[in-house]
Design goal:
single chain; 4 helices; alpha+beta; about 20% helix; globular; about 200 residues; seven-stranded antiparallel sheet; disordered C terminus
């Protein structure tokens, strides 16, 4: 007796990895770990403390649209490691990139507005943030390949506007063209007090 459910030699391998270098719009959900250290600004129970003493945000990144929509990528965002500052520096770099990407700011922009946009009140500000990520391939604790997010794509990248959606471009470049169009289109749909005589 041989059939589809008896012989698995011709079954497809699980090639579920998103190719390395793929750009995708993602939404971050922080899986709370219940660890707080108010002296570091880690409040709200978002941080997780691992058995080694390392502290991180347990990130679940969901692709929001495109070919890989609804796929989830799990990546830890480093906050502290007893081994040294590298883990935290990589985490801070990723969060800076996420804020730049989500808020439409060039990484080179050092204006007061850009600096203010790179500040958060707490980790709650990151929970639910949407940005363009560059998807990478790393390995898990068992040595198996898995997708990771190590970098965000900012408006400086040529494909940013396309991936993020043109509406997101307004944070980086002032909406000179889109803004005037909305008021012009809306009066046609519904009467607005104070319309000019030629429009009535």
């Amino acid at each position: 007796m041989s059939g589809l459910w008896n012989d698995f030699n011709d079954a497809q391998s699980n090639t579920s990895l998103i190719p390395k270098g793929t750009l995708a719009k993602v939404r971050l959900t922080i899986r709370p770990g219940g660890f707080d250290d108010p002296s570091q600004g880690w409040t709200g129970g978002y941080a997780t403390r691992g058995s080694t003493g390392a502290v991180y945000l347990n990130g679940e990144f969901t692709v929001t649209e495109g070919q890989y929509a609804r796929r989830k990528i799990f990546t830890l965002i480093g906050l502290y490691s007893p081994k040294g500052p590298d883990w935290a520096n990589m985490g801070r770099s990723l969060v800076r990139g996420m804020l730049n990407s989500a808020r439409g700011i060039s990484d080179k922009d050092q204006s007061p507005q850009a600096q203010a946009a790179r500040r958060i009140g707490g980790f709650a500000d990151l929970d639910g943030i949407e940005f363009v990520a560059r998807i990478d391939v790393g390995s898990d604790a068992m040595g198996e390949e898995k997708n990771e997010i190590r970098a965000a794509v900012t408006p400086d990248h040529r494909d940013y506007a396309q991936v993020m959606g043109l509406a997101a471009q307004h944070g980086y470049q002032p909406p000179v063209q889109p803004a005037p169009q909305q008021p012009v289109q809306q009066p046609a749909a519904s009467p607005v007090p104070g319309r000019p005589a030629w429009a009535q």
